[in-house]
Design brief:
The complex is a heterodimer of chains A (960) and B (517). Chain A is built from 30 helices and 35 strands. With 960 residues, chain A is of the alpha/beta class. The longest helix of chain A has 19 residues. Chain B folds into 4 domains: 99 residues, Glutaredoxin (3-Layer(aba) Sandwich); 202 residues, NADH-ubiquinone oxidoreductase 51kDa subunit (Rossmann fold), CATH 3.40.50; 92 residues, Ubiquitin-like (UB roll); 90 residues, de novo design (two linked rop proteins), CATH 1.20.1440. In chain B, strand 14 and strand 15 form a beta hairpin. The chains are: A alpha/beta (960), B alpha/beta (517).
């Protein structure tokens, strides 16, 4: 008798036909005489697949609800009439199923004959040849002839839709199984596809007969993956043929950390297919991870090391050895001249844990100071501070899957459908099941327009007033008696709680009083608080709309307060969940990138921790925190900070107040940039070291749910070295020996030095697929849900969250508030996505203006708008939009020439210096030419490009 | 004394000119100063006499029909307003017309007696008495009543209504629904329309009873858009019933609640299939759902739902008023009560014939239908809509009974009877069956979606003499594939008429060229 309880043991590459049943009741049945026990509610088709019996199928797939349309999976069941479809027939106790009988065989063959009577017979030249389920099934049922002939009605001349840059739609090959339509609905949640017409005229249609590109399609690829024929097919496969091997790896875009199968032909990626075994994405993807990988082979890739003495000189192509020794000499010279603390390094949230670890180790051990920081400074540093203070750990509390148990989902300052699309699809699935949604955001984000969702609430607060809203919510919870008194009593620090309770109960925190500040109706705030507190399971997800404020850390603590007060911590379905912007923000923070913390958030002043590192690294470590990025800039301008090593990070584009950043970079004696492209920062550099993409190296990324995923090398590094190897070379050249043969050895060192990583190893990652830290003796297999029993600091600490208005206020000169965000097709500064066909969705940043504000200024769609702030001026095109309230304007920051950060100010979070990107007072007016900064930018960009000779041997064509 | 004159207002009578006739009568009365009350009643179901004008006399209502506008002058001249005329169109006392007199009108007892929207009239003719009875019963007892009555689904599947109700009653849910399937799309059927156009409160009463029985407080009538008059009448009837407290938050002062509204379909036959209907009612594309789950457990918006045909729901007021036994006393075998047959096609006396189960098809066609309209010999009859088999004369003595029909591979369905005389080309009819499926298939399952198109093509090949033997064998296999493989009854029953032609009218499937020889 075969029993299956552990879905982990299932082969992710096998399609079991229908989704698993979550029932704990077990049912025993016999299929072709084989006894099997499965959970109640399992389909006969799945039960058979679990028993190793493969029933033919075409419309069934285990990521879609059973549909029952193809009828190929018909079986016979003793005591039942006819030929039930095994996909839609649930198992029953004692059921006797026959999957291969003569009548069944005949029925299947006759159905297949019908299919093929309306299908082109071009298998040998078909792009799906070798990967076609229709072909496989025709073989499985033994189809030998089509007695209907081929001159009947058919769809063989249906027109192709080639509008999408990544996949084609050839309806002549369509078998109308609706898998694409269902994937769009059930997996992605966009509902862009439908079946148009009925009966024989049924055809897949994007929207109301739009092209794919003009429809609501977000190009996530779920339909392409679902298609059993070549109807929906990657253009790369059409052009290059079927891949011959594949490697499972982790996407390098956002913090969801999707697992993909890189499907290869030799060293060339043919396509990226989301991996069903991936614990973060369960086989789903978005347009970036699925299709936008062509940047890896783009002609702009930096292919050899380059050096120059000053940024007015042309770049000189040199060997790795020359470049490294040039860099090392410069660093040493600077330190000799300006002191030990005059240099520093910036780690990247796009690089692997191992690489990040090495850069901070380089700074601490070889540079001899703590001047290491990371791009998390400008995104989630307040998360680290706020959560560590209140909950005791600088990390999200849940798995992504936890959202499937949430009853009320609060999304604050995040835009998951654009920035974390795969998680957004899961969230939307839960919303379709009836969970309530509360969005706290100045903009009406797309999540609020989730098709078929239940109740949704939008609290459109004024930018900069987060803390008042969270305080008002907590005030309602406390004053209306909605607290989870038991949780607070057993899990939280009594003294801190009482202090907080007294503070938050004060009438000045009531929604009615705060209404004037937030602009949100008091009744809506009350209803939101009640919904969250009374939901059963209330979960909070937040993004940079929370952290990138002058009170980012206060807001994070306010969120933690609210979750603790309502008992929404420590089990599935609840929690406080930062949505991480980049692939490895969590990891780069974990790896000790901050100037005050060693790996694992161990403070540099902590003698025990520091001495552990000192003995392992063989050096004496500085016990004083080093410089944060903004401090480095200030020190550079002041003349005390003279050299910087930047790995995989484009501070010139991504950090606020561009003019200030540029002045700082120009003031450096030595800027070493390690990147895959000549990015904006590299234009100020003296050493340019070629970076390697995620496809070219081994390592690990840690996603927003603390999940450590393996990154596996699928092609050789384009310039010969993986990023970690470059850091190793630089360390050795500086006289600090590093000797690693493989990133697994670096991970072993991390595990040894970091309590929360003690149990992590590449061997365990291979075995488990992924690990959510903490992983140690206490949690040998990792920790999906944090704080189940207690907090790392014992009791949860409520924090007083006094609202202090930002100094970035509107006035008559700057009457509007600018806030920024992302868009689905582009990623961050756009260095990668701008070098792919994703450009077709978003080829410029625009300024969204409310019709009211537009009317006042005579602004129409497409007008050039000058946007000026206290920091600078730039020019963008206008788009009139009602997503924001009047008085708020919005833009994205994906294109360097847009200069979004020319206008952002150097205001920052009081605790962590995270920039206040989300609030800038601006004025907007119609103009006829680019801003002064943009003209300078263009001139500088052109000059730097001339100085950067195209390296020899670089191919002319753009990679796919 | 005021003379009551009745001119029907239902779709059949109106399409035959009833409105003009009514106007002409009213005008004449006004001109002559005659003291009449013109009542626009519902049809009495004697379609061959429509527009059938009735005059109330001391002896009872006297019928004239079929009246054409050109007849009005003659009727008036002959003394229509005097209440007693000799005229060639006079059929005597309505109640004595054999077509009507010989029926067993149970559900349709009130049909055409008065103004369909007159609540007063409805109440005067036993209206809402069933509901009053039902209000005194516990839900489980109500369900038991329906079980005891032997009522089976009149939409065609003949599933015991009481068992369906019990499933819904026993299902735990915060919300349950009653859905009335009024997507009457079978060829030759019109009984649902007559209920809604001529006796709308009966359907409302039935739905309220169903709601009380299973614990549903919301009902929807899914009405085909081709019935605009039925929509207007039902909408108005619901408004009036709500105002009078028969629908709404406090039914008859009982404190119990039932809301009701009409929803229109969009012209798809498949939406008469209950799961496609539910999809459509939810605002989605009308596609068949796989079962399980049964709609009784996961129906409309995934809540337990009773989906009953108009006729099933319309039978309830009688069952609850007169008792389950009174209903169960009628009929034969497991087919209890009455079925309103609808005579159409090539028939002399078309119309509604409500009879207890058990009479033979031949009696129905001959005694009531009076044979063919053309007077030519009857050749074939299709019972139960476009998916029902064509019956040859050898089967006409089959009693009208679900089981007896099933035994000969036929169905009673919704009670539609379409007759054909000997000029019919049954090969053409077989082709039509497949073609109907081509047009109406939802397209979800392969056997139905592609099979029906290939079915037309194969029949064309047979009829044009292309390898007729091989193609007949292929047609036979295709029929089996569709029956065994289709998701719902649409594709699963489309072959029934085709197979009946192959079996009983094989001659008509020979190549046309051969037959002309």
């Amino acid at each position: 008798m075969i029993q299956y309880f552990d879905p982990k043991k299932l082969d992710p590459n096998k399609d079991l036909g229908t989704p698993p049943s979550l029932s704990t009741e077990l049912v025993s049945l016999a299929i072709d005489g084989r006894e099997i026990i499965v959970p109640e509610g399992t389909s006969v088709l799945r039960a058979a697949a679990l028993a190793g019996i493969n029933i033919p199928k075409l419309c069934a797939s285990d990521n879609l609800e059973a549909f029952g349309s193809c009828r190929l999976c018909a079986v016979q069941i003793e005591g039942r009439k006819g030929f039930p479809a095994s996909c839609t027939t649930p198992v029953a106790e004692g059921m006797q199923v026959s999957t291969q009988t003569e009548p069944v065989a005949k029925l299947r063959r006759n159905i297949m004959e019908l299919y093929i009577s309306d299908h082109p017979l071009d298998c040998l030249t078909c792009p799906a040849n070798g990967d076609c389920e229709l072909q496989d099934m025709a073989g499985a049922v033994g189809l030998r002839e089509v007695r209907y002939g081929f001159d009947g009605e058919n769809h063989l001349h249906a027109e192709k839709d080639e509008s999408n840059p990544y996949f084609s739609f050839d309806p002549s090959k369509c078998i109308v199984c609706s898998r694409c339509v269902r994937a769009c609905e059930e997996v992605q949640g966009t509902f862009a596809l439908t079946i148009d017409g009925r009966g024989f005229d049924s055809k897949v249609s994007a929207g109301a007969n739009d092209s794919f590109m003009d429809s609501d399609c977000v190009s996530c690829g779920a339909c392409v993956q679902a298609c059993p024929t070549s109807t929906l097919m990657e253009k790369s496969v059409i052009e290059q043929g079927q891949p011959e091997h594949s490697v499972v790896t982790t996407c390098a875009y956002c913090g969801v950390g999707c697992s993909f199968k890189a499907e290869m032909k030799g060293n060339e990626v043919i396509r990226m297919v989301p991996y069903k075994g991936g614990d973060a994405n369960h086989g789903h993807s978005c347009v970036k991870g699925r299709f936008a990988f062509g940047y890896a082979t783009h002609k702009d890739r930096v292919r050899s090391p380059m050096i120059r003495d000053s940024i007015d000189q042309p770049w000189q192509e040199v060997s790795w050895e020359q470049a490294i020794s040039f860099a090392a000499k410069r660093l040493k010279d600077v330190q000799a001249k300006y002191g030990r603390e005059s240099i520093g390094g910036i780690t990247s949230s796009r690089c692997t844990n191992e690489e990040t670890y090495l850069v901070q180790k380089l700074v601490r051990a070889a540079f001899g100071n703590n001047n290491t920081d990371t791009c998390a400074r400008v995104c989630h540093s307040p998360t680290g501070y706020g959560l560590k203070t209140t909950l005791g750990e600088s990390a999200g509390t849940q798995t992504f899957d936890s959202v499937m148990k949430a009853d009320c989902i609060v999304v604050i300052g995040a835009n998951p459908t654009d920035a974390h699309p795969v998680f957004a699809s899961q969230l939307r699935r839960r919303l379709r099941q009836g969970a309530e949604l509360i969005v706290i955001d100045p903009r009406k984000i797309d999540l609020l327009k989730t098709p078929h969702m239940g109740k949704g609430m939008h609290l459109p607060l004024r930018p900069g007033t987060n803390v008042t809203i969270i305080n008002a919510l907590a005030h309602v919870v406390v004053t209306e008696g909605l607290e989870d008194k038991n949780f607070v009593a057993t899990r939280c620090d009594e003294k801190a709680y009482q202090a907080w309770r007294k503070f938050i109960s004060e009438p000045r925190h009531s929604p009615e009083v705060l209404e004037e500040i937030t602009g949100v109706a008091a009744e809506d705030v009350r209803n939101a608080a009640r919904a969250y507190a009374n939901a059963g399971n209330g979960a909070i997800y937040y993004g940079l709309g929370v952290t990138e404020h002058s009170q980012g850390s206060t807001m994070v603590m306010g969120i933690a307060n609210l979750a603790m007060a309502t008992g929404n911590i420590g089990r599935e379905g609840v929690g406080v969940n930062p949505l991480r912007g980049q692939n490895n923000v969590q990891g780069s923070c974990d790896m000790g990138s901050f100037p005050h913390e060693l790996p694992g958030y161990q403070h540099v002043s902590d003698v025990v921790a520091r001495s552990r590192f000192e003995s392992a690294w063989g050096v004496v470590l500085d016990d004083e925190p080093g410089l944060r990025i903004p401090n480095m800039f200030d020190a550079a301008i002041a003349g005390s900070f003279k050299a910087l090593y930047v790995q995989g990070e484009d501070i010139a584009q991504s950090d606020p107040n561009t003019q200030h950043v540029e002045s700082a970079l120009r003031a450096l004696d030595c800027l070493i940039v390690q990147d895959i492209f000549l990015n904006e920062t590299a234009k100020f550099a003296h050493v340019l070291l070629p970076g390697s993409t995620f496809l070219e190296k081994n390592g690990t990324f840690t996603n927003a749910e603390r999940r450590i995923n393996r990154v596996r090398k699928v092609m050789p590094a384009i310039a010969g070295k993986e990023d970690w190897e470059v850091t190793v070379d630089l360390a050795n050249a500086l006289g600090y020996p590093m000797n690693y043969q493989h990133p697994s050895e670096i991970m072993d060192e991390i595990a040894q030095l970091t309590p929360s990583f003690n149990g992590v190893s590449y061997a365990k990652l291979e075995e488990q697929g992924s690990i959510q830290w903490p992983c140690n003796a206490e949690h040998p297999n990792g920790t999906p849900t944090m704080h189940e029993v207690d907090f790392p600091i014992g009791k949860g600490q409520f924090a007083i969250t006094e609202y202090v208005a930002t100094s970035e206020k509107t006035n008559r000169r700057f009457p509007l508030l600018l806030t920024t965000g992302r868009i689905l097709s582009q990623y961050n500064v756009g260095a990668q996505t701008r070098r792919t066909a994703n450009q077709q969705w978003h080829d410029e940043d625009v300024l969204e203006v409310h019709p009211h504000d537009a009317e006042l200024r005579g602004i129409h769609d497409g007008d050039w708008l000058g946007i000026s702030s206290r920091a600078g001026q730039t020019v963008l095109r206008a788009r009139v939009s009602e997503r924001m309230l009047p008085g708020v304007v919005y833009t994205t920051f994906h294109h360097p020439g847009s200069g979004a950060n020319v206008i952002t100010t150097d205001n920052s979070d009081w605790a962590t210096n995270c920039p206040e990107y989300k609030v800038t007072a601006v004025q907007v007016e119609k103009v006829s030419q680019p801003s002064e900064w943009q003209r300078q930018f263009k001139a500088f960009d052109e000059r730097q490009r001339k100085l950067y000779r195209k390296p020899k041997g670089a191919p002319e064509h753009v990679g796919r | 004394m005021t003379l009551q004159i009745f001119v029907p207002s239902d779709t059949t009578a109106c399409s035959l000119g009833a409105d003009a006739i009514a106007a002409a009568i009213e005008l004449a009365a006004a001109q002559s100063g005659a003291d009449i009350e013109l009542i626009r009643n519902g049809s009495r179901g004697l379609f061959w006499l429509e527009p059938m004008v009735e005059v109330e006399t001391p002896a009872g209502r006297v019928a004239y029909g079929p009246v054409e506008i050109s007849d009005v002058h003659g009727l008036l001249k002959a003394g229509l307003f005097d209440g007693n005329v000799e005229h060639p169109l006079c059929g005597g006392l309505t109640e004595e017309i054999p077509f009507l007199k010989n029926q067993q009108r149970v559900t349709f007892a009130r049909l055409g007696l008065g103004d369909p929207l007159s609540l007063e009239h409805y109440l005067a003719h036993d209206g809402f008495r069933g509901l009053q009875q039902a209000l005194s019963l516990r839900p489980a007892d109500m369900v038991q009543q329906v079980m005891d009555s032997g009522l089976r689904g009149r939409g065609g599947a003949a599933f015991p209504t009481g068992i369906k109700w019990k499933t819904v009653l026993d299902a735990e849910a915060d919300q349950k629904y009653i859905v009335c399937n009024a997507d009457e799309g079978d060829s030759g059927t019109f009984a649902d329309r007559l209920v809604m156009e001529c006796d709308p409160y009966m359907l409302i009463e039935g739905m309220v009873i169903a709601g009380l029985a299973v614990g549903a407080n919301q009902g929807y009538i899914y009405l085909r858009s081709e019935y605009p008059l039925a929509q207007r009448i039902m909408d108005e009837a619901i408004v009036r019933a709500r105002a009078a407290g028969y629908v709404g938050a406090n039914i008859c002062g009982s404190g119990r609640q039932f809301e009701l509204e009409v929803r229109l379909g969009a012209g798809a036959y498949i939406c008469g299939e209950e799961t496609a209907l539910l999809e459509s009612l939810e605002g989605k594309r009308g596609m068949v759902r796989a079962k399980p789950p049964l709609p009784a457990l996961k129906g409309l918006f995934a809540k337990p739902t009773v989906v009953n045909n108009v006729l099933s729901l319309a039978a309830l007021p009688f069952i609850f008023d007169k008792g389950a036994q009174a209903y169960a006393d009628l009929g034969m075998g497991r087919s209890r009560g009455t079925l309103p047959f609808q005579l159409a096609g090539n028939v002399r006396q078309g119309g509604l014939v409500e009879l207890a189960f058990g009479v033979s098809l031949r009696e129905l066609m001959e005694d009531f239908g009076g044979g063919t309209f053309t007077g030519r010999p009857l050749k074939a009859v299709q019972v139960g809509g476009p998916l029902g088999a064509y019956l040859p004369e050898s089967q006409w003595d089959t009693p009208l009974d679900y089981e007896a029909f099933a035994a000969i591979g036929a169905v009673l369905g919704h009670g539609g009877v379409v007759m054909f005389d000997d000029t019919v080309d049954m090969g053409e009819q077989a082709r039509f069956s497949m073609e109907f499926c081509v047009v109406e298939s939802c397209g979800k399952c392969t056997p139905c979606r592609i099979g029906s198109t290939r079915g037309v093509e194969v029949i064309d090949k047979i009829r044009s003499g292309q390898q007729p033997e091989a193609n007949l064998a292929l047609l036979d296999e295709l029929c089996t594939t569709m029956i065994d493989g289709s998701l719902c009854a649409m594709g699963g029953m489309t072959p029934f008429p085709v197979q009946s032609v192959m079996k009983y009218f094989a001659d008509d499937l020979r190549p046309l060229a051969d037959r002309e020889r």
